[in-house]
Design a protein that fits this description.
Elements lengths: L1 H22 L6 H32 L1 E7 L7 E7 L5 H11 L2 E9 L4 E9 L10 H18 L4
Antiparallel strand pairs: 1-2, 2-4, 3-4
Helix pairs in contact: 1-2, 3-4
Length: 155
C-alpha cells in the first residue's frame, strides 16, 4: 500500500515538474503551479484568437498579380495570382486569357483559403509575332479580381 502511494506522489511530482517547465512557472506550490498553467493556457488561447483574426484579414485582403515575359521563349508569359476567393474567379480569369488569344500551357491553382494560380501562357498566333503587353494583362486581371471580390459575399 505504501509503495502505491509513493508511486502516485512521484508521478504527481513528475507531472507538476513537467507542467512547471512547460509554463515557465517559478512557483513551487502545487496550487500556484496549476494557476500559472491556467494563465499560460489562457494566454495561448488569446494568441490563437489573434492569429485567426489576422489570418482572416489576410485571406480577405490579399491581392497580388504578377505577369512577366518568360526569357528565352517566343512570347510566353508567366502569371502568378493570389487573392480572396471569388465565386467565378477561375472562369473569369480563363475568359480573359481566351479574349486575349492566350493559351494556357501549364497551370496550377488552389481555392482552399484563397484563390492562387500560377500559369504559363503562350500567344495563340505566335507566328504573327503577336506579343501581349504584360502590364496590360496584369491590369486586366486586377480588374477581374476587383469585380469578383467586390460582388462576392464574405463567408
Amino acid at each position: 500500500m505504501a509503495c502505491k502511494i509513493m508511486h502516485r506522489r512521484v508521478a504527481l511530482r513528475r507531472k507538476l515538474h513537467i507542467l512547471r517547465t512547460l509554463t515557465k512557472s517559478k512557483s513551487v506550490k502545487k496550487s500556484s503551479i496549476i494557476m500559472d498553467a491556467y494563465h499560460y493556457i489562457y494566454n495561448l488561447k488569446l494568441q490563437v484568437e489573434a492569429i485567426k483574426k489576422e489570418y482572416q484579414y489576410l485571406t480577405n485582403h490579399i491581392q497580388e498579380v504578377k505577369v512577366e515575359k518568360l526569357v528565352g521563349t517566343a512570347g510566353y508569359l508567366g502569371v502568378r495570382i493570389a487573392c480572396k476567393k471569388g465565386e467565378e474567379m477561375m472562369t473569369s480569369i480563363l475568359e480573359v486569357f481566351e479574349e486575349m488569344n492566350l493559351d494556357v500551357v501549364q497551370a496550377r491553382f488552389t481555392c482552399n483559403h484563397l484563390f492562387a494560380m500560377e500559369a504559363i501562357l503562350k500567344p495563340r498566333h505566335h507566328h504573327h509575332h503577336h506579343h501581349i503587353d504584360a502590364p496590360f494583362l496584369n491590369q486586366t486581371i486586377l480588374n477581374v479580381i476587383k469585380t469578383q471580390t467586390s460582388t462576392t459575399p464574405r463567408v
